[in-house]
Every structure is written in structure tokens, then in C-alpha cells.
Structure to design on (249 residues):
């Protein structure tokens, strides 16, 4: 990544013992930096070995203790360089060099948009439900019994947090992620707050990334507890009540 240019996109990646996946993503971002100036903040949320190598424009942060999704990305936003756009990526995402330029173009065309995301496919090629309507208890119950599906259309209510590109000014105006959510529903909450502020949430269907998420809440009890706790917090929140009123109007 070239060092002489002010970054157009500041990116935040958080690793939870996923250094090998993060390294593969950094290689993708190195290739993408030929098309758009980037700066990456990599947060190691748990102790792990990571050699940054020769990659420039990379800031590595090491936490003394694990922090939540929102706290880590908010810290990266504050610590990273000023840039017009701020991206949040999971380390298990892979992308081509055209993705970030297309997302930037999408936001540039829509000055009222706060955040944009690409299509997301699994490594099996199946489209993931990364752009969705406002979650409700009934929708979640329907998905649990196999009635949920990927959302079509360019204007979802929220986009999933494995890949979000924000207009930096909008991210700051919204106060970043709500750090009271340790894990899960931070993406739903910030997208709802954006829409309540009169801003748009976009899915850019001209580009896509690959995501090999492990869906830890389906496999590990601790993650399931975090998921249920965050879900309950969101459904009790004034953000959800306001979003429901808007959806019903």
C-alpha cells in the first residue's frame, strides 16, 4: 500500500485468533490499494502471533483484554487516519480489487447514504442474507423454522457487520457503534439509527465478496448467550420502537 497518499478509506479489521485469515484479507487489500488509497487498522482482540511484514499503512493494535465489536471498531475509527470513508471488515472476508471503489462510488452518488455494503456469498457460491429487513420477533421465529431468505433490492433496513463501508462523517455523526452491545446487533442498531436520522442504507449489487463465517452462535454456548442478550437489548431499545413506528407508517 503506497505511503505517499492520504487514504480514501480507513479500514478496521478485528482478529480473534484469526491471524491467518487476517493475513489473507490484508493481501486482498494490498491488491485493492492499487485502485484506491487505503489504511488498515488491525486489532488483535486476543493474544496471538502476527508479523505485519513489509506492508505499509498498517496499524496493529493489541488489546490487553478482549473488547466488543463496537468498542474495537470505534477505537480504530478514532486511532486511524482521517479519511472520507471508514470500512468495517471481518477477517474471514475475501474481496477483489474492484469492491471498495464501487462502494465508494455508490456512496458518492447518494449523498444521503450513511453506509453501503456489497453482496455477500459463501465459499460455496450461495448468496448470504447480509441485507435484511428490520428484525422483529416474528421474523426471527420464521427464520428459525426455515422461512427466512436473502433480501432482494437495493434498500435494506440494515446490512450485516461483516462488511460495511460508512461515510466517515455519517459514522461520526451517529456516534459510531453502540458499545453496550458486546457482540451481535451492533450492525442492526447503527443502521436503524442512520435511517431514523434520515440517512440511507445501501446494498451495492454490482460487487460481491466471499465470507466464510463460522456462525459461532450456532455452535458455542457463550456466543449464543451474547446473541440472545443483544437481541433482547435491541428489542427493548427506543431505537427499535422508533424503527417499528416508521416501518408501520
Amino acid at each position: 500500500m503506497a505511503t505517499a497518499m492520504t487514504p480514501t478509506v480507513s479500514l478496521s479489521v478485528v482478529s480473534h485468533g484469526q491471524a491467518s485469515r487476517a493475513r489473507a484479507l490484508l493481501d486482498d487489500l494490498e491488491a485493492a490499494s492499487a485502485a484506491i488509497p487505503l489504511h488498515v487498522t488491525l486489532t488483535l482482540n486476543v493474544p496471538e502471533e502476527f508479523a505485519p511484514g513489509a506492508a505499509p499503512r498498517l496499524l496493529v493494535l493489541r488489546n490487553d483484554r478482549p473488547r466488543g465489536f463496537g468498542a474495537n471498531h470505534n477505537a480504530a475509527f478514532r486511532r486511524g487516519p482521517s479519511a472520507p470513508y471508514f470500512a468495517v471488515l471481518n477477517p474471514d472476508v475475501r474481496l477483489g480489487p474492484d469492491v471498495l471503489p464501487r462502494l465508494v462510488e455508490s456512496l458518492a452518488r447518494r449523498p444521503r447514504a450513511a453506509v453501503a455494503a456489497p453482496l455477500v456469498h459463501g465459499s460455496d457460491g450461495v448468496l448470504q442474507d447480509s441485507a435484511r429487513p428490520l428484525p422483529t420477533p416474528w421474523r426471527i421465529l420464521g427464520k428459525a423454522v426455515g422461512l427466512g431468505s436473502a433480501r432482494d433490492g437495493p434498500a435494506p433496513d440494515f446490512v450485516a457487520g461483516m462488511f460495511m463501508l460508512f461515510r466517515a462523517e455519517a459514522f461520526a455523526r451517529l456516534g459510531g457503534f453502540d458499545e453496550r452491545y458486546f457482540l451481535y446487533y451492533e450492525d442492526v442498531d447503527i443502521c436503524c439509527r442512520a435511517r431514523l436520522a434520515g440517512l440511507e442504507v445501501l446494498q451495492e449489487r454490482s460487487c460481491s465478496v466471499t465470507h466464510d463465517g463460522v456462525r459461532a452462535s450456532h455452535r458455542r454456548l457463550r456466543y449464543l448467550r451474547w446473541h440472545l442478550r443483544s437481541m433482547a437489548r435491541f428489542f427493548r431499545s427506543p431505537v427499535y420502537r422508533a424503527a417499528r413506528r416508521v416501518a408501520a407508517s
Remarks:
- The first strand starts at residue 9 and ends at 15.
- The helical segments are 19-32, 69-79, 99-109, 137-144, 168-173, 186-196, 221-236, 238-248.
- The chain is about 35% helix and 20% strand.
